[in-house]
Amino acid sequence: MKNPGKPTLTPTPKKQSPKQQREQAISALRSGKPPADPLAQLNPRSLALRVGIPALIVWAIALAIPGIWPKAIAGVLTVIVAGVILWALRFATRTRAVAQIVQTAGTAEARKDAIAKLDTEFKKDDAAATFAKAQLQMQEDPRAALRTLETINLDKVMAPMADEARAQRGMIHLILSETDEARMLVDKIDMSRHKEPKIRAMMAAIVGEAWARTGQATKAVELLETYDPNDEAFAELKPQLLRSRAFAYAWANNTKQMKTTLRSLSALNPQYLSGFVTKKKSPMGVPPRGVHPMLEKEAFDMLMRSGAVPRKMQQVRRG
């Protein structure tokens, strides 16, 4: 029986090292979970209705017209419709199987097992499996994820899927501060091909950051300000949208908006600010390529004031 006068003691969470905190924050930026495939939300039943009803109308017209040719044309259309529906069902089944494998990968060992299943149970050119494998690899080895995504032949897959691959590869290059490589990829993305708001916002964050860090800050600000990070529809993408805005405002010399954005990012998790701190100020920092000095200084000072860094680590050189 519990003593009502005695306070209940709760275990104190194990304190993470600065390196672990930073890796956790960067991992969250990496693993915002946009759909790996633009067709992942395809609904076969809805597709059957949209395509099947017009096909029935075509048959009704064909039967009402004398002669063999109207029936032959209707027959060809029926075969095409059946093929589309069969493809949709097979695609949905594969996508569901991929999603189930990814959902079980909550630990490093589970991710290793999931990657092995994706390699053995799906063909090498299966786009859904390739995106899922890269997503799992991103948690521990961005280079491996990049190599996986590079196996997708951008000239042979559907255009929206090619854009998705470019965006994911661009995001990895940005995390690694390989800004020129990211820019070459994002410049080929056509966002007008994508109607899903989350996909467009995810791509905007990546495209905007790449533009900002390679000399197109004004253009980046214009793009990013069309997506509100506080919109509930973009809740999972909020850290990435704020990160991109911080880069854009810094390179556009908009100090006020840059500081406001950094404060919003810090409110989510102060360790997100470490993504702007270069190696000259911290051994665990990021490469300096594309990081504005003003942005780095403000992020570093804000991170020090947040209390997220142990006091003994605050003695690092500030310049």
3D architecture notes:
With about 325 residues, the chain is mostly helical. It contains 13 helices and no strands. The chain has helices at about 20-30, 45-65, 70-105, 110-120, 125-135, 140-150, 160-175, 180-185, 195-210, 215-225, 240-250, 255-270, 295-305. Helix 6 (about 140-150) runs antiparallel to helix 7. The longest helix is centred in the N-terminal third of the chain and has 36 residues, at about 70-105.
Keyword list:
mainly alpha, about 60% helix, disordered C terminus, elongated, 13 helices, about 325 residues
Task: Report the count of strand segments.
Answer: 0
Largest sheet, in brief, is: none
Shape: elongated
H/E element sequence: HHHHHHHHHHHHH
Assembly status? single chain
A few lines on this structure:
The protein is mainly alpha-helical.
Layout of helices and strands:
Layout (H helix, E strand, L loop, with lengths): L17 H13 L13 H21 L3 H36 L4 H14 L5 H11 L4 H8 L9 H17 L3 H8 L10 H16 L4 H8 L13 H14 L3 H14 L24 H14 L13
Helix pairs in contact: 2-3, 3-5, 4-5, 5-6, 6-7, 7-8, 7-9, 8-9, 9-10, 9-11, 10-11, 11-12, 12-13
